Amino acid sequence: MKEYRRTVKELRPGIFQLAGWMPDCHSYVIRGKEKNLLIDTGLPQAGEAIRTSLGEIGLALEDIDLVVLSHEHLDHIGSAPLFFATAMIATHRLAAMKIRLQDEFAMMNQLFGLSADGFRVDICLEGGSVIQAGNYNLTVIHTPGHSSGSICLYEADQRLVFTGDTVLTEGNIGGVFGSGSISDYIESIERLKMLQVDAYYPGHGPASKDPPREFQAAIDRATTILADSKALFNVVREKNRFEHIREYMKHLND
Ligand SMILES: [Fe+2]
């Protein structure tokens, strides 16, 4: 179907973006000398588009050795079952737990109106895990915030990072869902900002243009959300402080 088509773009030699269209996500392929990696699989309906786009770069589904899921949301993991027979599936330990336990609230099944039955994860990643593809190596950076199990994948020699939904284009942030936390978000992006990065590639939308500026914009946005949420709680607290007066006023005309 048209809305699930993927547009293939070679970002660096052997590193490809299979661009999806909202609400589907982008996938990325690392054609390594020793292993072929796929980052994120998209919605369950994206399977045929994934198969076709892999074909455009000369790969069949069974040529993918390892699928790395950036986090547990269904728009990123939905087509993972296509690879169950021939590839290993890896994600952060906290995302893996939600997938194994079918935590539908955290995986946002209801939002997408889909189920994620039959999922499995073979490899639990931690921050600092290194995924070796031969000529390219991806370091796992645990970046909780959007969800507790979110990761970014950093290729230090290429100075690029795949950010999933943690940081989108122009420093937009992917929102705080289910298991996420805005204060974790701020700390995660501060760590991303310390990396030597020429480009970051998000799970949705265009690539970055100026990573340091965009990471700072993301920190500023997250900090504003934190301040707004504190202000909101203060309003609620103030409201409660006057509750007894309101109760008293109600009975004045009795
Ligand atoms: Fe997400």
Q: Topology, pairings included?
A:
Blueprint (H helix, E strand, L loop, with lengths): L6 E6 L2 E5 L7 E5 L4 E4 L7 H10 L9 E4 L4 H4 L10 E5 H8 L3 H4 L1 H4 L10 E3 L4 E3 L4 E6 L8 E5 L4 E5 L17 H12 L5 E4 L8 H31 L1 H8 L4
Parallel strand pairs: 4-5, 5-6, 6-7, 11-12
Antiparallel strand pairs: 1-2, 2-3, 3-4, 8-9, 9-10, 10-11
Helix pairs in contact: 6-7
The chain binds fe (ii) ion.
Fe (ii) ion binds next to loops.
Task: State the main characteristics.
254 residues; alpha/beta; Metallo-beta-lactamase, Chain A; 7-stranded mixed beta sheet; 5-stranded mixed beta sheet; 22% strand; binds fe (ii) ion
Proportion of residues in helical segments:
25-40%
Ions, cofactors and other ligands present here are: fe (ii) ion
Give the helix tally.
Answer: 8
Distance between the termini: 66 Å
Corresponding CATH superfamily: Ribonuclease Z/Hydroxyacylglutathione hydrolase-like
Low-confidence parts lasting 5 or more residues at pLDDT below 50?
Answer: none
| Major sheet: arrangement of strands | 1-2-3-4-5-6-7
Element pattern in H and E: EEEEHEHEHHHEEEEEHEHH
Mean pLDDT: 91
Number of domains: 1
Work out the oligomeric state of the chains in this entry: single chain
- CATH-defined architecture: 4-Layer Sandwich
Q: What Rg is obtained from the alpha carbons, in whole angstroms?
A: 21 Å
How many β-strands, per DSSP?
Answer: 12
User: Structural class, from secondary structure content?
Assistant: alpha/beta
Instruction: Fill in the CATH topology.
Output: Metallo-beta-lactamase, Chain A
